[in-house]
Structure to design on (149 residues):
């Protein structure tokens, strides 16, 4: 393993340790499904700031309102009377489920705001707030649980 490989492995290990060391603040979540393409892809691992209040445009992790054991990654579009209207960036994704299907998600089911993608390292970076109707934006960085969409 070369110097770059060792650095990349170290960065991944540091992100995992950070998520484990601050369990009440940060959570690690794996993206599955295509509903947040092109910004977030299946196999991406995200750091989620638990308890962070979203604002419109944030990418968030929430519990599915019909299946609370299931986590979903969506864009917060607007606050809607005690809940959040959450949408997929890729509305054409097969199996996509969001507020168009189940309505606003109650505040208590919003786990937190996505702050970074840490894996794969080649695509690591911060997840930035996007304009409503635009895809998730990830700012590249220098060198848990699974979600369903």
């Amino acid at each position: 393993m070369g110097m770059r490989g060792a650095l990349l492995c170290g960065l991944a290990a540091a992100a995992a340790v950070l998520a484990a060391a601050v369990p009440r603040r940060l959570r690690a979540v794996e993206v599955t499904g295509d509903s947040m393409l092109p910004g977030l892809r299946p196999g991406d691992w995200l750091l989620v700031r638990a308890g962070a209040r979203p604002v419109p445009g944030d990418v968030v992790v929430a519990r599915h309102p019909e299946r609370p054991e299931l986590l979903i990654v969506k864009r917060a579009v607007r606050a809607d009377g005690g809940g959040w209207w959450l949408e997929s960036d890729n509305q054409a994704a097969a199996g996509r489920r969001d507020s168009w299907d189940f309505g606003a998600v109650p505040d208590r089911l919003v786990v937190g705001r996505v702050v970074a993608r840490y894996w794969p390292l080649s695509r690591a970076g911060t997840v930035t707030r996007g304009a409503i109707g635009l895809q998730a934006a990830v700012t590249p960085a220098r060198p848990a649980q699974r979600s369903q969409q």
In short: Helices lie at 3-21, 99-102. Residues 44 and 120 are 6 Å apart (CA to CA). The longest strand covers residues 110-119. Strands lie at 26-30, 45-50, 59-63, 71-79, 83-87, 105-106, 110-119, 125-128, 137-140, 145-146.
